[in-house]
Amino acid sequence: MTKNKFTGTGVALITPFQENGNIDFESLDKLVEYQISGGIDYLVVMGTTGEAATLTKEEKKTVVERVCQINAKRIPIVVGFGGNNTADVVQQIKDFKSFDNIDAILSVAPFYNKPSQQGIFLHYQSIAAVSPVPIIIYNVPGRTGVNITAETSLKIAQEIDKVIAIKEASGNMEQVMNILNNKPNDFLLISGDDALTFPMIQLGAAGVISVIGNAFPKEWSDMVHFALKGKNKKALELHYKMLDMIQNIFKEGNPAGVKAVLHLKKITPNYLRLPLCPVSVEHYQKIAKLLEIIQ
Q: Which residues bind pyruvate (predicted)?
């Protein structure tokens, strides 16, 4: 079943850059292999963590094609298509030519222009009308400036067949419970917040689309899989083992924190594109100390 592809641990991939700002494809290949060997369940490409906002359309296309090539259909792939201009998002989907290698779209709620709940519903209805693959909607009001309410999420789940899941990153556990308690059986709620993943799974979430998984794919996918299987003691041990690191990778912005960890682990370089920049020297040193504890 389609929904089973997105149960477990998805990782929102970073985009590695060289010092000159170009995409580091060699490091990207290494990162994809690191995720797959770590046991994650699916890859999410060109999301916020991938710094998609700073990439050109051609660069996005090239990154997606490269990830698909390296993955070679070993695990499912989700690609981000989002924006605050519905017509442009629809056109992006129409112009995309590689859906044969893609299992779903992740589409963030329209940001900045603060649409009404009806506007959000109509936005996703328009996307669903042209998408050849299932859609995961993404609620992250801390970034977008607008919350997809539980009522709207449920309306989308009930009325737009192409939408199969929500990545829920509101941080509002009451909202999470309202969705879980009233959603259709085949609609998934996926955690969009690493620190809340364990409690959300206890409430009925299907897993996570993770940032910390970039640096710790085995540890984090183990945590999620233990929790989904009801092995809560083992899951909770890993949850608390990783909690300080999770909290610290977001303190100076995402993906700056997780790129620092990946650099310390010698997996990818520590470069970002402006307006994002690497974490401070002091915070890098703190992350390095936390990494020593975990390892």
A: 49, 209
Question: Any binding-site annotation on 62?
Answer: no
**Is 97 considered catalytic here?**
no
Pairing label, strands 135-139, 163-168: parallel
Backbone angles phi, psi at 116, to 5 degrees: -70, 170
Return the domain boundaries, the chain.
Answer: 2-229
Peptide bond before 275: cis, by omega within 30 degrees of 0? yes
Catalytic residue check, 138 = yes
Whether the ω angle into residue 134 lies within 30 degrees of 0, i.e. cis, is: no
Topology of the domain comprising 2-229: TIM Barrel (3.20.20)
Nearest residue to 210 (alpha-carbon basis) of 239, 252, 181: 239
At a CB cut-off of 8 Å and minimum separation 6, what does 142 contact? 169, 171
Q: Binding site annotation covers 49?
A: yes
